[in-house]
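Reminder to self: tokens first, then the designed residues, so the page reads top to bottom the way the pipeline ran.
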């Protein structure tokens, strides 16, 4: 869990939880905004460029990004977090701090289904500060005129408030919110506390990070952001006592409350309190299901609920939760492994061997997976199969490559999910918004809206409704890549792998994507077409050489056998 995940991937405060960073509890929700609230949609903010300030002010680059996210959120807009943006850049192997052209920013905005990209710059002579910002519209593409504010460097917070108010107002004639009302919705914040907070997030040294964040807390004791960052830092060191203290300071109305509660639940598992962990996880899941428009479960929570229940001898209930997690996230390698453990606990080694075999297929070089497969086969009375697996292990791992496993201490083998990743829900949480403005059911805006609806249904497990929404997107814009990608996932979950391949190939004709190439490789692996999977992964890495998912998957594949297409 990294410290630079400013504001939780897109947290939507319907109850302060997922997807889009949002206002405090005292402010109106996104759905209550009136027609005079200006440009409505999803905003993607990039770091501001240091266009003429000394290096001492370099922290303002990401600091102004963060402050812009806060200001837009408090104004009722739907905004990608810093983490949401950097996660997408990571998927394509792009450095998060690089300067991008307007064309590249536009493409990233399209890939994220954003409606507006915010780009800005700042200059300073050490006494005065000039801020500039512009909106890059995604549908239809167009760069709006710049807005600017200049004043004393010490008035940074006020300057940024006026800048964002202008950004919303000067680019949309419907925006009627006065500056006074805009400011009233913003959280007052001391500049020195904000600087310590940003410097703490950017610090590479743990002592410096803690010192800066503690100073931010001292200066702004009611501001949750530095407390959350301190909790996250403590948890990264597995100092659960300190982490729990800091996370307990996060109010339920805050955008990071869900992540804090999740991590407190993980601490419950790590500290041997499965009953407390189950209570935290189930309460969080219930709240999210009530507040999300899709009513979707989150697989990370389901996995940990399953482990907490199994530790309390509620294994059957845990198995049901883990199966649901696997349905929602079929690419996660830890879920089959945990299912194998739970079936061993349920005295069903035959079922356990099925899931350990799946785990081995996913990670052939994982010695622990192989050892437990052999163990479960022996317990199921399948000695010949166990011997065959032992021979395979000796060839792949060496004669002494298998570890000794003790199922008497299953808890030490369990794979707990320690981070709540909601990036999959980024745009699915947009509620109360029609697929297109003015009732027009055609064009890129309409297609993007239908894709969001499709993703909502997909995450809720409603495959028929998801397929219908994705097809509506294609009716709005023929060959809309995101719609083809969505249909591919629907078909993949239905076991229609040939149809899924066809849809992904259609998406790739429209736009090259390392992510789509990697997904296509996974499907080929499901079809036992290893050579084709390898070729897709190699193509993915040509597009994005640092794309971690492609590199990890490619590393699992053994060299191709001569004349063969499958292993």
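Designed residues (567 positions):
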């Amino acid at each position: 869990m990294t410290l630079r995940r400013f504001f939780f991937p897109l947290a939507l405060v319907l109850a302060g939880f997922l997807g889009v960073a949002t206002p405090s509890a005292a402010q109106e929700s996104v759905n209550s905004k009136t027609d005079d609230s200006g440009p409505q949609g999803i905003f993607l903010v990039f770091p501001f460029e240091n266009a003429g300030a000394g290096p001492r002010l370099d922290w303002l680059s990401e600091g102004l990004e963060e402050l812009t996210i806060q200001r837009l959120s408090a104004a009722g807009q739907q905004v990608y977090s810093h983490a949401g943006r950097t996660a997408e850049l990571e998927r394509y192997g792009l450095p998060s701090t690089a300067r991008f052209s307007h064309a590249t920013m536009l493409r990233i905005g399209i890939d994220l289904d954003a409606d507006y990209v915010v780009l800005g710059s700042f200059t300073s002579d050490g006494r005065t500060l000039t801020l500039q910002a512009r909106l890059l519209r995604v549908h239809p593409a167009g760069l709006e005129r710049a807005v600017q504010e200049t004043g004393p460097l010490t008035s940074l917070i006020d300057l940024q408030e006026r800048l964002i108010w202008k950004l919303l107002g000067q680019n949309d004639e419907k925006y009627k919110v006065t500056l006074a009302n805009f400011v009233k919705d913003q959280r007052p914040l001391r500049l020195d506390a904000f600087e310590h907070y940003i410097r703490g997030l950017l610090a590479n040294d743990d002592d410096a990070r803690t010192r800066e964040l503690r100073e931010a807390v001292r200066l702004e004791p009611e501001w949750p952001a530095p407390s959350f960052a301190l909790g996250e830092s403590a948890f990264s060191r597995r100092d659960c006592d300190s982490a729990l203290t800091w996370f307990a300071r996060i109010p339920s109305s805050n955008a990071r409350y869900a992540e804090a509660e999740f991590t407190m639940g993980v601490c419950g598992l790590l500290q041997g309190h499965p009953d407390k962990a189950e209570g935290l996880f189930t309460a969080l899941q219930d709240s999210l299901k009530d507040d999300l428009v899709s009513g979707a479960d989150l697989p990370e929570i389901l996995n940990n609920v399953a482990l907490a229940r199994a530790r309390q001898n509620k294994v059957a209930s845990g198995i049901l939760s883990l199966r649901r997690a696997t349905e929602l996230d079929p690419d996660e390698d830890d879920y089959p492994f945990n299912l194998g453990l739970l079936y061993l606990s349920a005295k069903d080694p035959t079922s356990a061997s099925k899931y350990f075999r799946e785990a081995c297929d996913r990670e052939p070089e994982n010695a622990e997976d192989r050892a437990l497969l052999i163990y479960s086969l022996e317990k199921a009375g399948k000695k010949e199969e166990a011997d065959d697996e032992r021979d395979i292990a000796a060839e792949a791992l060496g004669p002494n490559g298998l570890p000794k496993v003790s199922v008497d201490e299953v808890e030490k083998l369990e794979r707990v999910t320690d981070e709540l990743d909601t990036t999959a829900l980024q745009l699915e949480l947009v509620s109360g918004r029609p697929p297109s403005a003015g009732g027009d059911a055609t064009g890129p805006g309409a297609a993007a809206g239908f894709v969001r609806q499709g993703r909502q249904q997909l995450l809720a497990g409603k495959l028929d409704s998801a397929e219908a929404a994705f097809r509506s997107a294609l009716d709005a814009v023929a060959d809309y890549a995101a719609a083809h990608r969505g249909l591919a996932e629907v078909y993949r979950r239905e076991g229609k792998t040939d149809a899924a391949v066809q849809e992904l190939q259609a998406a790739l004709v429209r736009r090259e994507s390392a992510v789509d190439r990697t997904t296509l490789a996974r499907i080929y692996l499901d079809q036992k077409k290893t050579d084709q999977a390898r070729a897709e992964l190699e193509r993915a890495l040509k597009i994005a050489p640092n794309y971690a998912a492609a590199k990890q998957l490619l590393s699992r594949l053994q060299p191709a056998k001569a004349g063969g297409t499958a292993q």
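The chain has 25 helices and seven strands.
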